[in-house]
Amino acid sequence: LDHYEEGTFTPTWENVSNATFTVNLGRYTRIGREIACEIHMDINALNSASGHVGISNLPFTSNAAANYYGFSSAVHSSGWNTNRPDTHALVLPNTTRALFYYIDTSGDAQTVDWAAVNTGNLLCKVMYLAP
Fold it and tell me: What's the pTM value of the predicted model, to 2 decimals?
């Protein structure tokens, strides 16, 4: 265990202006290069948002190796305009960002767009490797 650390961070919704939250927190544990984040966000008012749903400001930059993505095992969401079962997040290489996708009825991955979200919450655990 060459590096062990625990802490908190503030996740940031991407493509959103002036949202307000009742809960907006992140916790992480780092063991070596492995990063495990727990994220809980409750949206009080969305105000202005469009495009792909994503979270930025993860606590460490992800590994830059080609074709490597961190991921979430599952996402819990409620209170959204459109139910998006099978929602997952991918952590993009060499970033502090996670983008959200869902599996449609054909089994294909589709982006989760802000039109699906209103107020409500999102809880997930995201795992990725740091450089």
Answer: 0.87
- Tokens 């969305």, residue located: 46
- Examine the pLDDT at 128 and tell me if it is beyond 70: yes
Structure tokens at 19: 């949202």
- Sequence-distant (≥ 6) Cβ neighbours of residue 76 within 8 angstroms: 121, 122, 123, 124
The string of pLDDT tens digits covering residues 60-106 is: 999 998 777 899 877 888 888 888 878 899 999 999 999 999 988 89
Helices (H) and strands (E) in the chain, counts: 0, 12
Give every CB contact of residue 130 below 8 A, 6+ residues apart in sequence. Answer: 30, 33, 34, 35, 60, 61, 62, 63
